[in-house]
Fold these 4 entries.
Entry 1:
Amino acid sequence: MGGLSLLAPMAWRNLWRNPRRTWITLAVVAVGLYSILVFAALLDAWARSSRDAALDVLIGSGQVHAPRYLDDQTIAQRMAAPGARLRAVLDGPSVEGWADRVRTPAVIQSEYKTLPAELLGVRPARERAISVVPRDVSAGRYLAGDADGGIVLGAHLAKRLKTRLGKRVIVMAQDATGALAQRSFRVVGLYSASQEDEDRFAFTGIEPAQAMLGIGTDVSEISFKLADDAGAPATVAALKAAGPGLDVRPWTALAPLTAAMNSFMEAFVYIWLWIMFVLMAIGIVNTQLMAVFERVREFGLLQALGMRPRLVLAEVLLESALLIGLGVLAGAAAAVATVLAFSGGVDLHFLARGAEFFGAGHVLYPRLAPAQFAAVSALVWALGVLVALWPAGKAAGSSPAEVMSHAQ
């Protein structure tokens, strides 16, 4: 401790013997750490946005289907309405909300055009707990109840069909017997989502859909939303036990591309960290080596006066620790300020369809992750001090003989 109290003032004063070099090193560390932390926050926001865009329309945290439904997504592969055992799990504390649906490929015909789509018969009250569609109705209204015979179309699909609110469309689909069933629906609402979803999905009450298809109370799927994704394996296992023979899958199996993108975003943060650290390490080692070579005479004299090599090593390491620590503090403070400034959302509407192409929403919400920020900052500081061992070792290896050669 006595040695540290002696070395700390010396190390601090030595930092400012060459202010220009010190400020350059501070900038390298601060900018490097700032880019890592802000980039990590933006990538995390992008990953959450792309996941929400994929899951919050219909998928949820997972789904339950008849065994062969995912291979043949027609009304022929349906299942009975959830029984008491399945409902007990779905109504449990781990599940935030769930909804059973009828879902079938269909053709929608307006006065001017005929286009393919998927017809979904839904329970509006349950859908509001797990889907964003009821909140994203841009014109008209959402469905009023299970027996509502209106239809809600995507805004882009309605435009392609050349129809509008109040107009009627004919929906045709294969019923339970394999025959063609059709029904007239009045357009009561238009919803906004990605263009792909707007063109793909049309919604009506579950009872009119069941009646049209002649399937009684049977359903095509049950979508559920978990309060905590960490509990997904246990919930999936419980649902499989409660519904023997049913196909229960988490969202990662239902949307593998989204899951892969989510994992890639997380991995890319660490790839970027190592890229930036290598660049920072080059700058740190270069500046510290230059400082050591300029001070060979000083280190040799200190050892001639009785300072042990380990104390010389400790002094140079302490200088590096102080210098890198200041850069880390500056970079972390700037990153926190930036993330907090944009926590209200980063508007990507100017990218429009480009953002949708990469699976993200139109607004990203970066958030401050204290544990991640602290861990990355500590890692950068520790690795920075570690790479300074080489220059410190050079300094500790100075000798009075080297001093004499430099003095001549």
Entry 2:
Amino acid sequence: MPATHTQAVSPTLRDCAAPAKLNLFLHITGRRPDGYHALQTVFQLVDWGDVLHFSRRDDGAIHRVNDLPNVPADTDLTVRAARLLQAHTGTPWGADIEIDKRLPMGGGIGGGSSDAATTLLALNRLWQTDVSRADLQKIALKLGADVPFFIFGRNAFAGGVGEVLEAVELPPRHFLVITPNAHVPTAEIFSDPELTRNSEVVTMTDFLAQNASKTGWPDSFGRNDMQNVVAKKYVEVARVLGWLDIIAASRMTGSGACVFAAFPSQAAALEAQAKVPAGWKSAVTASLQRHPLFDFAS
């Protein structure tokens, strides 16, 4: 339904967080008739992310006001998200969107998907369109399989193509995330003939039971089925995995290229980061229980 605009609202929303995610494991269980892969994963939100700023426009136009390398505005997921929300609600409002891009592209940490979800959440509030979380998730799925998770806004055990979500309680952790000098196209990895596509289906109970008596989160359950394929294709990813695994059990997130390890404290993660070889980009980040904009939808 179109917003009535009778309630006074701020014409801007600034400093809207778009947090990254880590895949604590990622199993590919099959390929669907539509060509998409069926998968299972646990999504972990972290407090490292992009920051977006929104200004309401009266003319209905959607503009991204800053440049992003190799991302034309018309194909940017934030612009597409804003236009989908317009079409769904019939709102007359538009928006200027500014993206403070802090997350690496092609890292498997969901940067573009998170930006799109933050756009849907922020504009839902700025435009007063009052779309429910469930309906925002349906809109989000049109933008990509990871986008509904960020709308869901809690750590989740996921199935389907990543859109079937069940909230899961995860322990507080700190992570060291290293970004290899590689950009890994997701489609290339999904199409690789060597990719494992027949992992056994597991349940959230399996995941929680195996981890209940372990201290080695996230390495104590499963694997990332994409990791071996990526490591063979991208030597820098293999190098980072080999180096970090000496310090703490490491894993690639998503389709790569970012590699991470979990630590029980920020001090331990920072101590490991201090050893990262020169020339490798890294970040220490803490786990989140909820998306910072969780209250923007209900």
Entry 3:
Amino acid sequence: MTCRETRVSESAVVAALCRRTPRRAPWLVTLGVLLLAFLASSASAGSPFRWRWSNPAPHGGNVFDMTYGLGLTVQVCERGQIYTSEDLLLWHPRSSGTTNALRATTFFNNRLLITGENGTVLWADSLEDFQLLNLGTADWLEGVAASSTLAVAVGDNGAAYSSSTGTNWTRETTGFTDWLRGVAAGNNLFVAVGEGGRIATRAANGNWSVETSGTMRHLNRVAFIGSQFWAVGDAGTVLVGSTSGKTWTPHTGFTTTNALNAVAGTNDYLVIVGDREVRLQDGSGGWTDEIRSNTNSPAPNWTFYSASWQGSLHFIAGRSGMMLEGIKTNASSPTLWTQRQTPIRNWLWDVLRLPEFYVAAGDRGTVMTSADGVNWELELVPDATTNSVLLGVGGTTNGLVAAGSGGRILFSPAIATNVVSTNVIAGVTNYATNTSSTLAIDWLAATTPNTNDLQAVAVRNGQWVVGGASGTVLTSGDGTNWAAQSSGSTAFLSGAAVLNNLFVLTGDRGTILTSGDGTNWFPQASGTTNWVYRVRAVNDRLVAVGENGVILTSTNGTNWTSPTSGTTRLLNAVDYLGDSYYAVGVQGTVLQSGNLTTWTNLGTLTAKSLYGVAGTSNQIVTVGIEGVALRSLLTAAVEPVSFTRIARSSGQNLLLLSGLVDRRVTLERSTTLTNWVEGVTLELIDRSGTLLLLEAADTNDTPREFFRGRMVP
């Protein structure tokens, strides 16, 4: 039996949402409106927040399983995340009503089924309305499959449940307690696989039988392809089962020691994916390693959890929302693996908000900026920096400093520069000169006196202080030339802040240092031996966070108090946004407090570790591993959504809406301007801030119709 840690790993308009296409599923259409335009809130249960992915795009959830049917691809992820798409480009969050991990999904005729953590079962006949069931068990349901008449879910401790409707489930007796990880339906029976090489079959009469697999390796998934079953598992295990599921033979087409997580395709075109594995069998030929041997368009070296065959292409997905399409342009050509979107997935270690934009820093010299917390751009840094890890960033509108591994410091000055733009009108070229700033765009490599890793960054009246490993303290008056100072400490100094002209550095072993001039440093009693990882000067006080959930506060840098955070997880960053303090940390931890005394764990969309937090009076942004950037509004949106265009053609209404991303509006309509009928709720999730809604027009051919939008919190 494995531990739970293996289960949770650390601009077109939205026209495609609403098009009528042959792939449209009838169960998605009600009230005359194409409900793929309906976007319910995916806020965590009991949380006022509505978290959205800014990076990676389109989302960064770990795609543990997915299914394709009725013209729709459905993905399920950690913390109750569900995403759907019709075209594999635009992905839309759905409200699950749970924060439990979702592990498996399938279509049961026209009904969508999802299973997961602690007996979670979801079913839906419409994407706007997921019904949440709890089977009264702590067993995780890791696999679900369906025939035309029966659905079966399997999981921990030999758990097996069956349902003829998907709404009422009965636990069955399997006769064993091995944990099951997958199940498949085919040839009038169900086959389940799991840990220790367990394979069991369920006959049509409901009886379960244990079969001989010939392996003790954990089996992760099973699929019925063509006329036989395929099972894949740890250490490169691949088994082929007979039609009856009774006889299993090791498949020796390729050799790997990596875990294999999913198999999909046809008899002639099969794909197996896993931990840094994408293996492809084309026709009766041998297997190709699509990561290492495909020289034309290889798959990236990544961990993939799920795979599906979509009639003309392979579609695979995995950790942090990585998605690939495998397409052959003709029968003799190799498979081309493509990503519709290629976001940065480098770890982000810090984020800062200036009055007009965000700036984040991370692995491989990554510097990213964003004006709105939604759209992020990668900035150019000196070539030598791309081998560095930027651990901290700080500064003001006068300049920025990013510090990192090997003594690396980058400086970005705020220099006004002229930018010439051109515009051609009626064949005449017009030129315009505008003034822009180089801040966060141009980065210069600074000269430093040592090669110790650096992280803490603070500035006061043009004087910079940077702290790092072995008690390193560097100072500079221009951000470019740096001098070493004696801190009197050997601690790794990872946090820096300025309060009332006082420099403060924090680090491991409970270290807190203060200085009035940046040169002479004095130790202060923190009252803890935990690593005080970050400190910020916010709301006229110092707030520090760190190891074992430690939180420290001070109004003068000398006297510190330690409120109880309610968590033992490592806290990595803190800020004051709106009217509350927010601390973020490992495993997706987000704490909120209005008074620094009582803290509430809000959680987010992910269990990935978060290392930076920043924001505005109405937005929080947090960043972390594998390029994670999440955002949420802090208060109800008040900015209106505009109707850019309204038209009727070929029996359809067309409404083009525009506004700020993350704003939601309920559509209302009337033919008299007096009696208004409430319709669907829409959310602007496309990064262009636009949404195109196509709907069937009134069957009575109403000569005129008025629309209005009511803002939704």
Entry 4:
Amino acid sequence: MALLLAINRKIHRAYNRTRDSNFALDGLMGFDMHGKTAGLVGTGKIGEIVARILRGFGCRVLAHDPVKSHVCEALGVEYVTLPDLFERSDIVSIHCPLTPGTRHLINTEALEAMKPGVMLINTSRGAVIDTRALIASLKRGHVGSVGLDVYEEEGDLFFRDLSAEVILDDVFVRLMTFPNVLITAHQGFLTREACEAIARTTIDNISGFGRAGAAGVAPSNLVTARLIAPVKG
């Protein structure tokens, strides 16, 4: 939501301007959230919370997920196919895991199916978006604005201070040149409370693993996984 609001109201550009005592409003026009249609790709715990906030802003909310959330349905979220979500949404926000079926889910075809001027937000996993396809769509002016907290090749960039170095990733450098793209360095999780919760869960998992091995008791945070088939319209 921070990325969405900042890129909509051009907060990042306004901040840089006012630091130079430039208080002109040219190029800072945004849009009202009320009445807009937002599409959520993935409605797990994070998607549910985003849906609740968007509904509070007065947005119509569409969603696509192999498993429907009863919480989202109770909020009035409408589950639709991916092509329908892309066609109808003014804002597309991604909250799905990275699987073989979701890798480059947002590709050239998906981007072309979206509304002209669409806002795209990704705080899930970088490789869900084909970055080269996104750049091509931005160059054509089809995608209106982008907020990213993740990048598919972020392993060579994020969580490091590269301010005195030359960035060798030409795709990332090109992405950074667009004034309608706002990138943060995978900091969506970074709150004091969240880090404390991660530490507690990690310690509990280590302790639980030891207890499970000794007594045959299942760990309290048992993780199971299943392969999700590619998402289709």
